[in-house]
Every structure is written in C-alpha cells, then in structure tokens.
Amino acid sequence: MEFKNFYFCNLDFGKQLTGVERAALKRARLFKNYFGISPTFLTTRFNESIHENVQRLKDNGWMPKSCEVYNIYEYLRGAYVDKRRLKNQYALDASIYNIIDIDANPAHQKWTSKVNESYYKYVVWVDKNKDKLLFINNLYNAKIIKREKFDKNGNLLAIQELNEAGKVESEDLIHLDGHIVLRRYFGEQNKLTKIVIFSPLGMVEEVLQNEEQLADYWLRQFVDFNDPACFVIDRNPAWNTALKNYHVENGHKTISIFHSSHLVEMEDNIMTGRLNSNFKAILEGKYKVDHVVTLTEHQKEDILKRFTQKNNIVSIPHSIDELPEKIPSERRNPNKLVALCRLAPEKQVVDMVVMMGELLKTHPETELCIYGDGSEKNKIIEKIKELDIGSNVHLMGYNENIADAYADAAFSLLTSKCEGFSLAILESLSFGVPAASYNIPYGPSTMIQHGQNGVLVNHADYKAMAHELSQILSQPDRLKQMSENAYASIERFKEENVAEIWRELIVS
User: Fold this and answer.
1) 483 vs 248, 340, 433, 493, CA distance in Å?
2) Sheet holding 411-414, edge to edge
3) Could you tell me the fold of the domain covering 329-489?
4) Is the predicted pLDDT of residue 431 greater than 70, yes or no?
C-alpha cells in the first residue's frame, strides 16, 4: 500500500527535548534519508514557543528542513493560514491610565486606572523598545484577576481569568483576527476539565472534555482522509481517540510506538502485572492499531506471552544515523563519568549520586557530570550536599549538543527503573563511551554485553555498579578496549539496517 501522507503524532517540541521527541526526530531523518519521505509532525500541547523551537531544531540539524510541524492550538488560531497576520500589533489605550515606570527595567510599567485606583495593569514588553508585548497582568486590590499573553510578534495569544487563590480558572485562545477560538476550563491542580470551541461569530460549535477529543475534532478538519495516510503515534493517549477509526481497513495505517515498558513496575509479573496506562487501551483492544512497534525483541516476546492473539507486533530499535568521528583514547578523561537523562523519579538519578559516594572511596579523583533537568533536581542537590561530594558531582543542565557531553568521557551511567530502549545508551556507545546500567527491562541488555562494552548490574545495586567501575577504572588498557568494543557494538543499529525493517512495515 502506498501512502500519500505520513504523520508523526506527538505532544510537543519544547525547549528541552524528551527522549521520545529525540527518537521521533531520528526516525524523521531516517524516513527522509532512505525513503525520500518528509513526515508531517502533529502536536497537541499548547506551547507559546513552538515556532521558535521548531526553527531551532531545523537550524541545528535535528529536524529535516522539509518537515512541517502543525500544532492544534496554533492551527486553530490561524497561524498557518496567513503568515502576514503575524505582524499585527496589539494596541493599548493609554488615555485611561496613568503610566509609571516601576523599576529599573524600561520594559516594565505600571498602568494605574484614572477611574478606579484599586485596578491597575502590570505591562511587560519583550524589550526596552516596547515594540512587542510579552504579557499584561490585570490586578485588583493587588491580586491578579486577569492575564493577557502575547505571541513572539506581539499579537494577543490568550486571556486567562484567575480566581482568588491566583489559579487559572479559564483561558481563551485568541485568533489572529481577534475573535475567541476556544475556551479551556481548569479545576483543581490545574486539571483541564472542559474545552469549548467557538465560531468566528462567537457561537458555541463544540463542547469537549479533554485534549484527546480536541485532537479528534481537529484531525477531522486538518486531514484529507480521501488520501491514504500513515500515522506513526509516539504519544498514544493523546491520539488514541482521534485515530480510533483510521486503519488499513479504510485505507490508512496506524502504527503505535511503545517507548517505555508496558508494565507499571519492572518487578510485576509479565502475565498479571498492571499495564502502563499509555498502552493499556491498545493492548486490551479498546483502540485498534495496525501495528505495535516495540524497541526490543525482549518486550515483544513478553507482550506476546500475555496477549497471544496479537499478531501485529514488530520490534524496531532506535538507530544511529550519523556515526561520530572516533575519539582517540588519549583525549579521554579516565576519571570522567557522564549521564544524560531527565531528572525525573523514574530515572532514579539519586541512585547515581549514592553510587558515586561509594566509588569515590576508591577513586577520589572521579567526577560525574549529569546533563539534564527535571522535577528531581532539588532532591539530587540535597543528596549531593548530604554526601559532601559537590566537588565531584556536577549538574550541568540540559545540553542539546550531546557530542559535547561524550567528547572526553570514560563511562556513562543509567540507573532507571525501566526503559523502552534507552537512546542514551545507544548514543553513548556510538561515541565509544562504555555504559554502566541497571539490568532492567527493556533495552540495556540489548546493547550492553557485560564486561565487553559496558556493565550490567541488578536493579538498585549501586554498590555493585561502584565495584565494577572501580575495577575497570583501575585498568587503563581494559578501559581502552571497552571503548573500542563500544564502537563495534553499534553496527546492527546503523540507520541503513533499521531502515529496512521500517521499509517492510510501511509498505506491507
């Protein structure tokens, strides 16, 4: 079957790429390089900076320049229809306000009402020239009651209404023509409770309960379903509702990627364990897809043991599209360890820090550089302070240029609870950096041969990891050989090999 259009269904492209987004971008480059296909990315998350982020990804080579990215909210507000409208400027009526410079920043002003002194605006421009508005907070009795947000060109983007507690109750998305496109309502803990779609004349067109229904609403407008299309779904919950009726039987194809374990806990029994909510509906048949793609053969086998009726599961690993130039061993720092990961609970970076506390007992000169950001940052900082190893463990922040991180590293670390594959390990090996990892489902054991190109230890056994690393770091010749083995071990993950599996899947 030949498809006219290929869509990669995702959530977002933020300032910091997640592993899922990086994997999708790698796949887009593979499709472009080997099939001449420039997939169109579809995203569902409200992101004020998505245009800038996409341009940055294209400029630095992460995304093929020929790929288009469409976001639901930006599409609905007309941002892809007439780009000339992006030059409009929102006009402020200064005649009814007294304007006061409130601090040293010339881009900040206080606009007090000439009628009601309890009401005022806090106006912020992008820069001191005041040619583009950033946001306006409307205050009454010193409490923010309304916030007006603007896009990068100074057009009114959204209007938020806030309650007494300072929480957003509703948010209006504003079309570039000035009318309200939709209104989002929020409940406790900022949870989205309802979406109302408006016509250009202000009439209610649709009332939706969540963003999944919004994706369905939008897709029916955006996609010409007379043309066969192939949808590759990287974020299943966001797209299950929208794509429930689009599969081979009606001329299209849907392919669902399982980027993580299908079980909630790695210790769970593969036959009875709780299913990950991201994949539960598909595995149990609530939503039909034409193919499920796992990243390892191991996960595919585990799923088939439990869901014996499934005959549409294919294992396709991540790939390496461009092999880095080999780094001479003399440029390596034998005392430098690195980790590239989100600072999230499931990554268990605190374990990494505790492991370093053990390793430093035998190798006090060793350093660990952690590249990433996330919700666990403060907890990690506290553990570093508690162990008094701040001179050896460094939080480097997010770094999009992974080559910088691996350039002189001796070893990389992974202490996750579970993975679907671990792109970080694959990239580490491609730079000739052996990897030490917990032996968890799924991924590490697919790439790491213990003692050859890395280290595998039991989950949570940070002492064993410290012991293994201590032994290896004491043997420079062995470390050098493991680096050579790392380079050699990625042969089967080269783009041309992975491309053949994809070719068979998308044409079958």
Assistant:
1) 45, 18, 6, 17
2) 393-397, 367-371, 336-340, 411-414, 435-438, 454-457
3) Rossmann fold (3.40.50)
4) yes
Domain 5-81+214-315 class in CATH: alpha beta
The residue extents of the domains of the chain are: 5-81+214-315, 94-209, 329-489
Instruction: Find, among 396, 415, 440, the residue nearest to 350 by Cα.
Output: 415
For 113-170, write each residue's pLDDT tens digit: 988 889 999 999 988 888 889 999 999 999 999 999 998 888 899 999 999 999 999 9
DSSP label of 320? B
Q: What is the pLDDT of residues 57-102, one digit of tens each?
A: 999 999 999 999 999 999 999 988 765 455 555 677 888 899 988 7
pLDDT in tens, 345-359: 999 999 999 999 999
Strands 367-371 and 393-397, sheet pairing: parallel
Report pTM. 0.91
Residues 6+ apart with CB under 8 A from 357: 387, 389
Is the backbone of residue 68 left (phi > 0), alpha (psi -120 to 50) or beta? beta
Topology match between the domains 5-81+214-315 and 94-209:
no
Rounded to whole angstroms, the Cα distance separating 20 from 297 reads 19
For residues 74 and 80, what is the distance between their CA atoms, to the nearest angstrom? 7
The two three-digit tokens of residue 18, written as one number: 């997640």
Fold of 94-209: Lipocalin (2.40.128)
